[in-house]
Design goal:
- By secondary structure, this protein is α/β, with parallel strands linked by helices.
- It is built from 17 helices and 13 strands.
- The strands form three sheets. It has a six-stranded mixed β-sheet with strand order 4-5-13-10-11-12, with helices on both faces. A four-stranded parallel β-sheet has the order 8-7-6-9, sandwiched between helices. It has a three-stranded antiparallel β-sheet with strand order 2-1-3.
- Helix 6 links the parallel strand 6 (146-150) and strand 7 (170-176).
- It starts with 8 loop residues before the first strand and ends in a 13-residue tail after the last helix.
- The chain binds pyridoxal-5'-phosphate (PLP) and zinc ion.
- Residues 126, 128, 154, 223, 254-260, 317-318, 363, 365, 393-394 line the site of pyridoxal-5'-phosphate.
């Protein structure tokens, strides 16, 4: 009889190191309640190929016309979930998002080279599709038919759209009432997800859902689920591939629950261990002042775990006071010799308008990363000769109200330094003609690119 192959991957507690099989449904360590991570047998992966051979393998899959390797997640299948059979994979495909060079940000900051990796170009308009492709695939592999998440908007949009692709799978989204955008709210409803609204903030929604998931056979697809983190690592893989495997000096990431920055860190350390890249970029985590527990922890030298009560912010997808992946994120950022910073609403919205006006439309969460990048450059944390990649996590179109309110001067506490006001005219050709005449207000803008 043929023996079953030894698996490449298992679960490990980041606190006490205790191991569990990957196929067990669990979200925390039985012994110490620590967060779990997926660990791959890196020695075995290393023996199978050297760094150059891995790069050739992945580069050879660029531009394929069919199959899972069209996906910016599953192009890296062997390093994401190597034991997961191809037949289980649920993909749209996702990823393959643009990496935009930003001359405007280079000029503004004096940094040598700045790119924006626009994850808002994913199928449901945020990076959450990468983790959900992995999470829903794994749920299907396990034979689960009910999946759930609490969400600040984008997680539920992605979960709903991937669950909808699987026959017999139902999604349940638990949302904080009035704290997510209209566009985000429309997404799980449209995809047929059971959509539950609670008069509570996100931190309460997730606590409540985790409690229920311990008692009922519901598969939790928040980023506490370590399988999702494996999918999200691919942001780093794809970015490096787009840069010809030449690492930048810094990667700037907006941080809410801190799953994504943990994922990017894990992905980078794995690539380095396998010889695919020769050094690891430093990570800069960005938070709005309204919800900045990690920025405070950084200032205080990580003496103790910081929890805050989140206040309102235009960056509503990262309005989180008690990040679920706190410990993972602190470990990844410290290991990379990085930092966490925070930005005010004014800085966030002005940074958004600056980037938006270059034709790259980003959301307030992504703009938090831009604002913290500008601040880090101003304070000399990021040097003038350094290469920077900023992760834009969602598309501006998901947050249209914030954009319209900013430009209309209606965003509380924000003076729009870069307002592009709507001009209301009578429906009369003469009025339009006056506007377009020399000196009529339609002269070309000099402050753009
Ligand atoms: C989820 C989300 C984030 C934060 O990601 P975490 O993994 O929770 O830190 C940032 N921006 C957007 C647009 C998001 O949807
Ligand atoms: Zn443990």
């Amino acid at each position: 009889m043929a023996s079953t192959p030894r698996p490449f991957s298992s679960l490990r507690c980041i606190g006490c190191g205790r191991g569990y099989p990957l196929g067990e449904i669990r979200y925390e360590c039985e012994a110490c309640s620590g967060l779990l991570e997926v660990v791959h047998d890196l020695d075995r992966l290393k023996k199978s190929r050297d760094g150059a051979a891995w790069r050739r393998l992945f580069d050879g899959r660029m531009g394929v016309k069919a199959g899972i390797h069209r996906s910016g997640v599953w192009r890296f299948h062997e390093l994401i979930l190597p034991d997961l059979p191809e037949a289980a994979i649920v993909t749209k495909p996702e990823g393959d998002t643009n990496l935009y060079r930003s001359p405007r940000l280079e000029k503004e900051s004096g940094a040598a080279c700045v790119h924006i990796k626009h994850e808002g170009e994913n199928p449901t308009l945020s990076f959450k599709d990468r983790g959900m492709s992995a999470g829903v695939s794994f749920a299907r592999h396990l034979g689960v038919d009910l999946v759930a998440c609490a969400s600040t908007g984008d997680t539920s949009a992605a979960m709903a759209a991937y669950a909808a692709q699987v026959e017999g799978m139902r999604g349940v989204a638990v949302l904080p009432q009035g704290k997510i955008s209209m566009e985000q709210l429309s997404q799980p409803i449209a995809s047929g997800c059971l959509t539950v609204s609670l008069p509570a903030d996100f931190d309460t929604c997730i606590r409540l859902l985790r409690e229920v998931c311990r008692k009922r056979p519901v598969y939790l697809l928040n980023s506490v689920n370590p399988v999702r983190i494996e999918g999200q690592k691919s942001i780093a893989y794809e970015m490096l591939q787009q840069l010809g495997w030449e690492p930048p000096d810094w990667i700037v990431v907006p941080v809410g629950n801190a799953g994504n920055i943990s994922a990017i860190g894990k992905g980078l350390f794995d690539l380095h261990a396998l010889g695919i890249i020769d050094r690891v970029p430093r990570l800069l985590g960005a938070q709005p002042e309204a919800a900045a527990p990690l920025a405070r922890a950084h200032r205080e030298g990580y003496r103790e775990r910081v929890r805050v009560k989140a206040a309102d912010t235009a960056a509503s997808a990262i309005r989180i006071g008690d990040p679920v992946s706190y410990d993972k994120a602190v470990a990844a950022v410290r290991r990379s010799k990085g930092a966490f910073l925070s930005a005010s609403e004014q800085e966030i919205m002005d940074a958004k308008a600056l980037v938006d006006a270059t034709g790259v439309y980003i959301c307030p969460n992504s703009a938090t990363a831009v604002a913290c990048f500008l601040k880090a450059r101003g304070e000399g944390i990021i040097g003038a000769d350094e290469k920077v990649v900023i992760i834009a996590t969602a598309h501006g179109c998901k947050f249209s109200q914030a954009t319209i309110d900013y430009h209309g001067g209606r965003l509380a506490g924000v003076v729009p330094g870069r307002a592009n006001r709507i001009i209301e005219l009578e429906a009369d050709p003469a009025a339009l003609e006056r506007l377009l005449a020399p000196g009529g207000g339609a002269a070309s803008r000099k402050d753009g690119q």
